[in-house]
Amino acid sequence: MHPSRHLIGLFLLIVILAACATAVSPTRSAPIVPYTPPPTSPPPPTIAPTPWPTAVPITPSPTPCANPGRIETGTYSSVTAGSMNYRIYLPPCYGADGRTYPTLYLLGGNIHTDAIWDELGVDEVAEAGILAAQWPPLLIVLPDGGWVANNTSGGPGSFESVIMNDLLPTIEQTYCAWAAPAGRAIGGLSRGGYWALEISFRFPEEFVSVGGHSAALLDQYAWPAVNPQYTGLSQNLGDLRIYLDIGADDYVIHNIRQLHLDMETAVPPIPHTWILNQGQHEETYWQAHIPDYLAWYSKAWPFDREVYPACLP
């Protein structure tokens, strides 16, 4: 072999060995340290929820006056009819605030005494409504009609005179009754409804409201000057509030319904409330509607006791 070829081969071998000698050795990675999680804080202790403090029972505060309402009985002397009986409902706390009360006069039918409205439960209904603030405290007077209510038709010397000249003054002098037209209402059932309308239509300036509940307008002896079917149309009734109601099956419905129609078609119409219910001419009918009656009468009177006149001794 030619000597120059040996030299070239030797040279190439040297170059290759040098390249291998200068090759960069791979860098060793840093040893992997196993991960140790940082110490965790111990979980907070479980705290039981704090119960609400047990409410201390509250003793109800007493009402300003714990005295319940009551029915009292009395008599009065009438020039026309002699000695007459009445009952009167006095509301809870009667007389405690020194003020007068609005007064509702409720008349019974020709077979009834002063007990009828009491027996129907008017005092219990009144009491419940007063305590529930459905209507203001009021007096309810329940007079006996006696023979004079059944045997007279109206005008001077009749039951009208007994009510206007004898009963009203007695009540307003004896009790804390609001002695003004704005404080008086009158109503009645059956024959008592006739009298309530007869009296109020002839003296509309003396009452704020009148109710004829199944009013029996059947008096054949009542002449136009006293008959409510005439005076209800001919008199100037002013601002008198009028309530007429009856059961659809009541045998006395004809005349009271005719009065309603005549008032409705009068020129100008005469304002009034007309209620036609289901029912007959019987105690269960009136008893069922006592709450309606008291709610209606009471709308004329304020709740605020401070606006009522003082009750003078």
Secondary-structure map:
Layout: H1 3-22, E1 70-78, E2 82-90, E3 103-107, H2 116-120, H3 122-131, E4 139-143, H4 146-151, H5 159-174, E5 184-189, H6 191-202, E6 209-213, H7 228-234, E7 241-247, H8 253-265, E8 273-277, H9 283-298
Parallel strand pairs: 3-4, 3-5, 5-6, 6-7, 7-8
Antiparallel strand pairs: 1-2, 2-4
Report the order of strands and helices. Answer: HEEEHHEHHEHEHEHEH
The top-level CATH class is Alpha Beta
Q: What is the CATH third-level topology name?
A: Rossmann fold
Counting structural domains, the number is: 1
The poorly predicted ranges are: 1-63
Distance between the termini: 163 Å
Largest sheet: 8 strands, mixed
Helix content: 25-40%
CA-atom Rg in angstroms = 47 Å
Mean pLDDT: 86
Q: Assign the CATH architecture.
A: 3-Layer(aba) Sandwich
Entry summary:
By secondary structure, this protein is of the alpha/beta class. 34% of the residues lie in helices and 16% in strands.
Give an account of the 3D structure.
The chain has an eight-stranded mixed β-sheet with strand order 1-2-4-3-5-6-7-8, with helices on both faces. With 313 residues, it is of the alpha/beta class. The protein is globular, with a radius of gyration of 47 Å. The chain contains nine helices and eight strands. α6 links the parallel β5 and β6. It has one domain: Alpha/Beta hydrolase fold, catalytic domain (Rossmann fold), CATH 3.40.50. α3 runs parallel beside α9 and α7 runs parallel beside α8.
What are its keywords?
disordered N terminus; 9 helices; Rossmann fold; globular; 313 residues; alpha/beta; eight-stranded mixed sheet
